[in-house]
Write a structure and sequence with these properties.
Aspartate Aminotransferase, domain 1, 3-stranded antiparallel beta sheet, 2 domains, about 400 residues, single chain, Aspartate Aminotransferase, domain 2, 13 helices, alpha/beta
Amino acid sequence: MKDIIPYSRQEITQSDIKSVSDVLSSDLLTQGPRLIQFEKLLCELINVKYAIACSSGTAALHLAYAGSGARQGSLSIVPAVTFSATANAMLYCGGDIHFCDVDPKNGLICPASLQSTIRNQKQNNSKAQRFIAPVSLSGATAPLDHCSEIAKRFGYKLIEDASHSIVSYGVNTSGNKIFSASCKYTESACLSFHPVKQLCCGEGGAVLTNSKNLADKITRMRSHGMIRPNPPSHSTPWYYEQIELGWNYRLNEMQAALGCAQIRRIRTGVKRRKELAKRYNVALKQKPFKGNLSLPLHDDGHSLHLYVIHLSSSKLRDELHKFLKSKGIMTQVHYIPLYKHPFFKRIVGDIKLPGAEEYYKGCLSIPLFPSMSHSDQDRVIETMTSFFS
């Protein structure tokens, strides 16, 4: 059998390996200079004031919610098409979640549904914070400007889940660029450095913000809510205090070193993803694909975390998935609407949102990653051609 082609994979170079190996020979394996350097590089890359790296994208979401005041009685409105972490992080804080609909073409949060969801909320006298968590999906940027207007009007805070969209931007109806994770419209933005993401640390995440107070709070909460007095006491230099509840969500030095090495070539990786996407676009517009599938909508600011095609039916999608797998080509579905999972059904009941249903019905992520060769991509296209033929 031919080699398996994954739907996505990490790209590790000799430079990456050396960066991690150097840490293993150093004095500090955690809370050292590589973490500081990585956070500085993130700030420069995305043009934000503060970056707090942590152990995962889920940890970043939890820290962002908790740092902004989420607690018992809080709630967050989450688009139905996303990974579970976007919703789970609010539940970790003791709050509630509600789902709003998405654009059926791109899976991004639908402002009209968001506004309707807010208006349908029962009046809650609790002073607990309320949140909206727009998700920038697959490398496309959510309509953050529209979400910001709605959030301000109704008294919500905005936290962007930018796990898919580092170095992405969208263009609004006025022709202005809306940069994902820039925190221009949001309290904070959260990144993930899982191996299949554009920037890989093995595991890891980060909270980005332009607020010093929020950055300081999240930095404390990342490490058990502890601080050391500054300047330290001369009589007790070992002294520290826990001033609030926090967690052990630290990113270690090996992960930070890998992140530093990867961040230097992230734009090269995105450029390669775009080149591969163009080859797909040309091939999949031809027969026998025409009429059986539609291609993703990509503007110049899309960072191509995923290449998501839409089959004409869920039955056809599932058959294609099984056929490709039998030939050693892996695909994935991003995502099952969260309200379909048994856990969330127990929370929100048996609901359906038309945009999410339509997006999910035929979506399939086919292989795309920077180290993918043209011959492997041609194999994917040829195998898909044989299926439809």
